[in-house]
Amino acid sequence: MQTASTARAEVNRANAAHSTGPRTEEGKAASAKNALRHGLTSAQLLILPGEQEEFDALLKDLTRDLRPEGAIETVLFNDIVHAAWQKRRARLLEAQAPAAGPDQLPLLDRLRRYHGHYDRLFNRALKSLLEIQRERIAVAIELEKPAASPLIPLKLLRPQSTVRRPRPQRVDKKLLDFDLASFRTTPESGAPRP
Predict the structure, then answer these.
(1) Domain segments of the chain: what residues?
(2) Which of 62, 95, 110, 124 is the most exposed place for a label (fewest CB within 10 A)?
(3) What is the pLDDT of residues 43-70, one digit of tens each?
(4) Is the pTM above the cut of 0.70?
(5) SS3 track for the chain
C-alpha cells in the first residue's frame, strides 16, 4: 500500500516529465530573457536591436583612445567597455523612469545605485589600465637605453610628484611674549636693569 507522500511524489515525477522547458534554440533564447527587466545586473551586455551602431562607435572610440595590448590590458579594457555601456543604459532608464510616476521611486533609486556602481567600476578599471600601460611604456623605454645594470625596479621609474622639504622649526610662543624694556642692559655691567 502506498502512502500519500509516495503517491504524490510519483504524480510530481510524471508531471515533471511533461514540462521539460523549451526544446528549440529560439525557445531557449527567449526563455533566458524571462526575468529580464533592465539588463543592468546581467553578466552579458544587453545591446538592443537599435543600439548596435552606437555600441560599435563606443567600442571603436575606446579602442582608439586606450589601445590595449596583451591579455591583462584586454581584460581591463573589456571591464571599461562593459561599465561605460551599462552607465549609459542606467542613464537612459533613469531618464525614462519619472514619466512612469511616483510608484517607480524604488526603481529610480536602484537605477542610481547601478549607475554609481558602474561609474566606480569604470574608474577603477581605467586607473588600473593606465597604470599598467605606464609601467609597460617605462619598461620599453628602459630596454631601449644601454643598460649598465639590470632593470631598475618600476617603483623607481615612477615620477616623483612631491618633493619632501624639511619642516620649519616651531618656536614656542611663550618665548616671544616678553617685555623688551625689562631686558635693557646698563652699559657698565651688561646686566639687565631693575
Answers:
(1) 71-146
(2) 95
(3) 677 788 888 999 999 999 999 999 999 9
(4) no
(5) CCCHHHHHHHHHHHHHHHCCCCCCHHHHHHHCCCCCCCCCCCCCCCCCHHHHHHHHHHHHHHHHHHCCCHHHHHHHHHHHHHHHHHHHHHHHHHHHHHHHCHHHHHHHHHHHHHHHHHHHHHHHHHHHHHHHHHHHHHHHHHHHCCCCCCCCCHHHHCCCCCCCCCCCCCCCHHHHCCCHHHHCECCCCCCECC
